[in-house]
Amino acid sequence: MGKYFGTDGFRGEANVVLTAKHAFKIGRYLGWLYNERRHSGTPQPARIVIGKDTRRSSYMLEYALAAGITSSGADAYLLHVTTTPSVAYVTKADGFDCGIMISASHNPFDDNGIKLINDQGEKMDDETITLVEDFLDGKTGIPPYATGANIGRTVDYIAGRNRYMGYLISLGRYSFKGKRIALDCANGSAWNLAPQVFNALGAKTFVINAEPDGTNINRNAGSTHIEHLQQYVKENGLDAGFAYDGDADRCLCVDEHGEVVDGDKILYIYAHYLKERGELDTNTVVATVMSNIGLFKALDEQGIDYAKTAVGDKNVYEYMAQHHNCVGGEQSGHIIFSKYASTGDGILTSLMMMEVMLAKKQTLAELAAPVRIYPQVLENVRVIDKRIVLSAPLIQQAIAQAEAVLQGNGRMLVRPSGTEPLVRVMAEAADTDTCRRCIAIVTDAIDACGFRA
After folding, report:
1. Known catalytic residue: 105?
2. Would the pTM of this model clear 0.90, i.e. be above it?
């Protein structure tokens, strides 16, 4: 992680941590950089595509980025309110030099973020991010401003977003006619796209949290507050429900009984489906260290191999690309289907779950039943400096003490958040009380060290 950009972009409170000035400078540098990288014999300016979520500050950052890009002589193409995976898709499909998504994903509305995407629709390489950070810190020379006819243009590019929706619709192998589906759009990027896709495929959609006002994104809505969708599905007797986060790069599901089908169960359902069809390339699912033991036991039962990466869909994707795997993701609902996308895509995930349900003529509950999830408790501890916590001897002793309590029938995972000033303390055991006991050992040590903010 760099000084500004973490595992999922430059993120923080808008106009406090991430300001309009930052956005302008990022746009200015990227516009200049990609103009420089273009072949000298190509007279056309660099083209950078920008999407944003529904936060009030997204508009401010969008215009600041566009101003910076055009001031350097590159062209800024605006997708307007759209999803992160749509920016990745359009960047690659339409030959842009890079893409930018303005979103703080599942964070509260007063936070925002800037995510950089390369010309292959993948998260930006570390070398380019380091160049951007060096410019923000004044370590490099100042690019010249473009003048006259060399000043860049801002182009309305809503057609790119529509083309992405068409792409998703084209992936539907079966009609959704007769299926009653709930969509929780988190008052975020999916609010308009997801219902249109499901309606086009014939579903009877029941849409909630699709009235963004700039301040209600993720507020008691979406994948981080899935209890509302659970209740809604049960009360209305629906076939399934899908909950997205603010920028719709993740999805969690709710079955017909109102039970959550998380990322681990999604991975199992789709991998098992592909295995049965002889289409599970490398016979391997890529998960992270946060995935539940129950997932791995269920995969073992089906003879499916698995790999574990560090947390972060970027890490999952890089492993998948290197080893040619076709399905991977995180418990949180970042699921990557590498045949169709280069990043986690919440709407795509819901379409893939619908495909399995329809192909196998089974409900989500039936499909997920083989996965017995072990109790897992996670506590997020806000700390003064997340970088020093794990290196403290008292914290290391506490983790060892907690692991001794588990006696090999579970695990502890203590790690700093990649996007927030938090240390995440997770315990997995045969029962919830044991999980909480182990977490308390570690959090008490954090308090004893004076690390808690």
Report:
1. yes
2. no
